[in-house]
Design brief:
By secondary structure, the protein is mainly α. The protein is about 75% helix and about 0% strand.
């Protein structure tokens, strides 16, 4: 059981690193893809949770994301919990868009 957990953690770290690397090389096409995926799969749920303001989750003063690694991990968690069917490159595009639009973490 411990070996399985260690393997899952290692895979998660690799995927997060890949997402960060991809987020660092953001293109207009990646940002558009991220926005489109976010609009399609996330905004209605966020609006329902935050009194009609889907962006409040990103702008609230007590947000839980403080760096790119946490942003990538949060996007992955939301994707998994919402059963979006996104691939790692989709998650990386969403993280890149969110960073560009809201968080402004340094990518280099």
């Amino acid at each position: 059981m411990k070996l399985k957990l260690k393997f899952m953690v290692a895979v998660g770290l690799v995927l997060s690193t890949m997402a960060l690397a991809q987020a660092a090389s953001t293109t207009d096409a990646t940002l558009k893809k991220g926005k489109d995926l976010l609009d399609k799969s996330c905004m209605a749920c966020h609006a329902a949770k935050f009194d009609g303001d889907p962006t409040y989750v990103y702008t609230r003063p007590d947000h839980k994301v403080h760096n790119l690694a946490q942003l990538s991990a949060q996007v992955e968690r939301c994707s998994t919990n919402s059963n979006t069917g996104w691939f790692p490159d989709d998650e990386a595009a969403v993280a890149a868009y969110l960073n560009e639009r809201f968080y402004k973490f340094k990518t280099n």
